[in-house]
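just leaving the lab so this will be short. what follows is a protein written twice so to speak, once as letters and once as structure tokens for the fold. can you read through it and tell me how you think this chain folds. thanks a lot i owe you, the record is right below.

___
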Amino acid sequence: IHSGTDQKGNFFDTVLLTMLSSTFRRAVMTASHIPAKSSVLSNARRAFAQGPAAGGHISDELLEKLGSLSTQALVDGLWVMGWPSAQIDGARPLHPSHRCVGRAVTLNFVPARPDIAQDKPAGGESPEYEAFEKCGPKEVLVMSSVGPWESVGGDIKFLRLKQREIGGLVTDGSVRDTDEIINYGFPCFSYSTTARQGPAAMQPWECNGVVSVSGVTVRPGDAIVGDQDGVVVVPAKVAEKVYSIAHGREQIEEIVKAELMKNPGPPGKFYPFMSGKIKVDSPLGQLLASKGITPENSNQFEGSADW
């Protein structure tokens, strides 16, 4: 048996729930009719639908330090950390002198289609020219092509990159007007060269989004380092740690090479080695100790890994 007080309480609870439900329904219905481009709700939906394009910021100082290392050392640093392959295999230097380092500005191409060509901003508002204007001496333009033999640009377009004194151009596609690009002086890494026209096969569609270049993910702001062995992408989020590991490895390799030149013999006594796994009492550990490198000042030894 319920008291009158209980019956009144149940009645008011029901009314309250009904009011809240109708209020909630009105809020949802109102929000659903807010124009997408002007609403906070639209931004919230977008945030849930897609993460940030950039993964962090790399300082000028760190960028310079990364550029002082070889691409091999950077690849090894990422490998030690367990990260996926970061070498863009489809990008080779256009000239033996070409070497680059800079923060990535990305440009994504999509296969040509009539409506794509119509909807893409025209003329100077095109995504490719937007990307050009974001580039300078500390940026590398990374262009994701739809195929290795498709042209991402040539003489006239890339004159602007020369004027911007760009840090470099990297693409898994091809470039035109090779002699002119070499004369422009900025480092260029591409799959190959071609006489083809690009617009018939693809259109520039997005500036500074996350792109895939030869199967390697590139985010805007990642460090791009290129030399005669190829191009490596160093994710901004872990760039400091990659440098620490790669720099330590290069120091050790220099010591090992000097020792083998002084005392010729098979390198197997010291090399190869695994960063974070060098034993103090091993021949390599003892050699490093004689040069002042110990677990106290290096993350290359067993028990000293900090990643």
About this structure: The chain has ten helices and 13 strands. The longest helix spans residues 4-32. Residues 1-6, 11-40 have pLDDT under 50 and may be disordered.
